[in-house]
Amino acid sequence: MRALVTGAGGQIGQALVPALLEKGYTVLATDVRPLAFPTETRHLDVTDTEALRSLLKTWKPDEVYHLAAYLSARSEKEPHQAWRINFSANWTLFEAALESGVQKVFWASSIAAFGPHTPRQRTPQHTIMDPIGLYGVAKLATERLAEYFHQRYGLDVRSVRFPGVIGPGHLPQGGTTDFAVHMFYEAWQKGTYTCYLAPHTRLPMLYIEDAIQAILQLMAAPAERLSVRSAYNIQGVSFSPGELEGEIRKQVPHFTCRYEPDFRQKLAESWPESLDDTPARQDWGWEPQYDLPRLCQAMWEAILAKA
Q1: Angle at which helices 208-220 and 11-22 pack, to 10 degrees?
Q2: What is the CA radius of gyration of the chain?
Q3: Is 2-165+207-233 a domain of CATH 3.40.640.10?
Q4: Distance CA 122, CA 127 (A)
Q5: Catalytic (active site) residue 25
Q6: 179-203: per-residue pLDDT in tens?
Q7: 166-203+237-273+290-305 belongs to which CATH class?
Q8: Catalytic residue, candidates 135, 193, 196, 290
């Protein structure tokens, strides 16, 4: 099987490419930044319509894993380019996938597609969605577009609504849930951290290994079992910056955290605190493996291994 990965240099991409190689895929990893994988890599700007179409036509992947994106905070600062990457490129990709005979397409949606009128506790799979950030608007628009391409053209397109993803090795930039990774590294290196969210701001999170497992499980599921063609809810663990601070102090007792909420606070307050992921569990067997203590243990083990 041949798999094309866009945005392979990002947090999820850096973990997904090795996972696909381990499963025996022939992988082409692409990004706008230099890549270092034990597989073929190429420079690809997904907003370059002709380059994207040409690559799919000539390389002929069986599956595409589309991860290239501007995250929530960066999307507010660079809205026009964010729309081109987060929505227009998806449309091009869906069309090119049909033209090139791609069997399956995975793209990454987000809890940012929800909004202030969405129920915040155990957010249902199907509910009110009124995002207030451009990143979320683009994700919601792509969910509807994915459904359209599946219903109208039969494109086998699949997605999950990622919560904040936490993992070692890669410091995410431009997102609203980035604090969860940065707090670990700042605690270990400096003993202090300034958080841009208020301490009580509870959000759903997911350890990177659970995130990769979700992608692989969903893509392996028989098409006839899938009841959702927009994006599946997946719940991992929910916690606030204050709760994470307490867990980190168990390892770094002298750690201190200051809280200086910025524009990301409003975005975070419009997102769910937890998700009802019943359809994902029923349709393709989703079950996360990491709760907060195990997540923290995995992060510390990775950090200490490279200390």
Answers
A1: 50
A2: 19
A3: no
A4: 11
A5: no
A6: 999 999 999 999 999 999 999 999 9
A7: alpha beta
A8: 135
